[in-house]
Amino acid sequence: MKVAVVILNYNGRKFLEEFLPNVIAHCDPTMAEVVVADNASTDDSVAFMRERFPDIRLIENGSNGGFATGYNMALRQVEAQYYVLLNSDIEVAPQWIEPVVEMMDADPQIAACQPKILSYYHKEQFEYAGASGGFIDKYGYPFCRGRVFQNLEEDHGQYDTPMEVFWATGACMFVRADLYHQIGGLDDSFFAHMEEIDLCWRLKNAGYKVYCCPQSKVYHIGGGTLPKNSPRKTYLNFRNNLSLLVKNLPKRRVHRTILYRIFLDWVAALKFLFQGCPKDFGMVFKAHWDFYRRLKSLRAKRKGCEHKQVSCIYRRNIVFDSILRGKKKYSDLKPGDFTL
Description:
CATH architecture of the largest domain: Alpha-Beta Complex
CATH topology of the largest domain: Spore Coat Polysaccharide Biosynthesis Protein SpsA, Chain A
Strand content: 15-25%
Order of helices and strands: EHEHEHEEHEEEEEEEHHEHHHHEH
Number of domains: 2
Mean pLDDT: 96
Structural class: alpha/beta
Number of helices: 11
């Protein structure tokens, strides 16, 4: 099969009921197979799939290893040229697969690609998790074309040009199957959050490109498994962000970047405390503690991999530029401030 659209499910029966028929309707069966991988759900997702969608392939993972391990377990059992990692809470538009596949077919150096991600509830607005392609700044802070921190732009076609980006969202990521396995898949230790940024960085370190194809679009609810204000999400984001920096930065930049980032993390932690969010403050502490405990294994993962200056990193600090310089949109940033 050319394309395998793989939906990872955990206690998401309501999303499968609402969105799976839409995905099936907009997947040409001559080129795309739809697969649902269940992460040991405790609701009736599996029974529901067997009853309502008996013709859709169902992979049952024996445990809930999160987004990373769940996909790794499932994709070892799927054969295709391209995988599409698709969240269960996404509505796809007609012809959402074809433009991306055409782009990737035309350029073998494109290892991963995402469509334009719009909000399901506000369809004229970009969605937080990916918008029109992801970037990071020099300290590892992620942002998107169409979303800088909490500032979500309306989509007026301003970011409809296909372009190379730093990361493609795991909410809807097209990736070459052979490279996915060659690069080692998603990092199991991440569990969830930022594992797709780590994967894209490793692909770029290996000499490949990551793209956004806005001619394809999908609509994402977001926060389907962990709500946006979850302390657990705070923990995973802070821990995994430090982890991907240690794993992927060029050697000469690792120590200085990590030290500065740790300082900025504690500024964020104090902000949580002053905002009356003590659980989030505690999760930053826990994230750092667990990061220190994992340093040895993270350093080991650097071995055998090339670490170089890759494209699409914002050379400045997006936190300061957003807060102090009023750079609230991707279009406010100078192209010359990104690595080539």
